[in-house]
Amino acid sequence: MSRPAESAIHPASSLLPGFDHKGLRTAGADINYAVGGSGPPLLLLHGNPLTHVSWHKVAPSLAERFTVVIPDLRGYGDSSKPDGGEDHSAYSFRAMAQDNIELMRSLGFDRFQLAGHDRGARVAFRMALDAPQAVSRLAALDIVPTYELLSNVTLGWGLESYHWFFMAQKAPFPERLIGADLEYYIDYKLNKKGVGLSIFDPRAFAEYKRCTTHEQIHAVCEDYRATVTVDHQMDAADRAAGRRIECPVLVLWGSNSHVGRHLKPMESWSRWADDLRGHAIETGHYPAEQRPDLVLAAFENFFDPAG
């Protein structure tokens, strides 16, 4: 694997003024990340099919109170796309969580606060279970825990979230179909029901298109293959063992997202966390880009500026 350049000028640097773009080689991947601000550490994890720049509307404000670290997950953006292995475990949420624990330790942070959206929230969920000593607070945007989701699939959610089971099909079936027209795919994927593409800054949208390559599509498919196999098995084992998230948890979901329309977020999260709070916000599936004011207000009320 090639090592990302240290302090490189990133194509989307104008979206994150005051942030430095750097790279770290973890035990399993090369991770591209941005870091800015000062104060206690706060790690922000993006979703699919996005990159770290999806936080650009909230990260600079948060950096006034926190040291904000925003990586590209392995398989996404400018991070590397390692081979998934026969069981796809290189793209498990545990593997992605380990990348980010190593990243934070490299910056001198053994304990930190954490927020994730979409896939990033699932990585954050796994990190909070596997490394409770590292995660002091967790905020999850627009998901319910994976085990609850896959154990209670509804017709409405399935129709809106078709890609979960399509992208999990055996390679190279989904890769070839998506790869036939990558630009059409990313336009369709980001144009969520009732919201549209106007919520995205053109510079951020250009980044998502730049990073939608054949290599990334294969990595994302490996991510979803891992979800319905090894990730689901880990969660089932944790449920059977009665494991729970120990830190305070904030859950936010879009009232006009597939989560808000079809799922019961607080009920689902209550099976995994005791110190739990949350509410719907008036957004679709991309709250940090559609209504950054609501996300920022919730984060500032939840995260501890004293660490």
From TrEMBL:
Species assigned in the record: Aureimonas altamirensis DSM 21988
Leader peptide range in chain numbering: none
Domain AB hydrolase-1: start-end pairs: 40-290
SUPFAM superfamilies hit by this protein: alpha/beta-Hydrolases (SSF53474)
Highest taxon of source: Bacteria
Lineage: Bacteria, Pseudomonadati, Pseudomonadota, Alphaproteobacteria, Hyphomicrobiales
Protein name: Haloacetate dehalogenase
Keyword field: Hydrolase
A Pfam family annotated for this UniProt entry: Abhydrolase_1
